[in-house]
Amino acid sequence: xxxxxxxxxxxxxxxxxxxxxxxxxxxxxxxxxxxxxxxxxxxxxxxxxxxxxxxxxxxxxxxxxxxxxxxxxxxxxxxxxxxxxxxxxxxxxxxxxxxxxxxxxxxxxxxxxxxxxxxxxxxxxxxxxxxxxxxxxxxxxxxxxxxxxxxxxxxxxxxxxxxxxxxxxxxxxxxxxxxxxxxxxxxxxxxxxxxxxxxxxxxxxxxxxxxxxxxxxxxxxxxxxxxxxxxxxxxxxxxxxxxxxxxxxxxxxxxxxxxxxxxxxxxxxxxxxxxxxxxxxxxxxxxxxxxxxxxxxxxxxxxxxxxxxxxxxxxxxxxxxxxxxxxxxxxxxxxxxxxxxxxxxxxxxxxxxxxxxxxxxxxxxxxxxxxxxxxxxxxxxxxxxxxxxxxxxxxx
Length: 396
What we know:
There is one protein chain. The chain has 396 residues and is mainly beta. 7% of the residues lie in helices and 37% in strands. The strands form 6 sheets. Strands 1, 3, 5, 7, 9 and 10 form a 6-stranded mixed sheet that branches. Strands 11, 12, 14, 15 and 17 form a 5-stranded mixed sheet that branches. A 5-stranded parallel sheet has the order 19-20-21-22-24. The N and C termini lie far apart (71 Å). Mean pLDDT is 85; it is low at 1-43 and 48-52.
């Protein structure tokens, strides 16, 4: 493989040198570089044989829309432990990095004991319409490793390749808080969907907005990942009747306006066994209705004020979540949950409406002297005090 120092690497060396002088670092350092295209698989062998600052780097070229994995072999030939950091030189563009599953290093930064080695498989995705050349490398020292501001630690998580915009029907939509590219329908073929928090359309970068009914009725998708910071102004029926859906990641991180409702959002997702955690919405209405294999419910956010038929007919649900303080309506939430047992703690002191909530024998733990206690007692008195409900009280 031809070894060379590119112009960008020369610039990188100057940046690092100036940075070290500015920081008053007195140690010497060495720089090793190489360059390769995607057609020439790359391995950077980093031999940590000096106690002073060492920097080893390689330029990786990734074609438009492509992904390439480069191995970084890190070897410590010293008689003592040494610190290392695997990094990339941050440039503009639509790209992402992550660690390949073949990696044996525990982290992208840390320490390596004497006479030991490990391998980092660094995967790089290029989402732009032109090729990308990115510098990656390893810095090491017996002391703390110092990076320049443009050198970023390679993420230790697996690479996430976001679905292209062509996998969605979309529209440019304006709200009070800005203009978004709203995803309205998924039309892609992948069963695992990764949604980016921004997309580029006609050269303009927009924040992503998740639209109502985005995946409605899609029986093929199994997993959906949201990049943290993705927006939504409407989450009604987003996953309704997605019968193969098993996992939704970072749903709780969605950026939403105040007062939103999750209306039938996951209804009839029959393969969902563990509910995703929820963003700070106000109303849960039929949110998980008909999820017949749901075993574990999410934590109910403190922002919720009303719950209606949220878990109705979740026949495998084993434990009810705590009902938080701000809830004032609890209607039909656990009706048809035939596997639900144990104690349900209701911390909300002012529930005004309570009806048809439980099917199985259940114990309700209610705040002593609260309006909620009186509402529940009145409801079951009118129903003839059915034997499947036991009421206990607690004091704050």
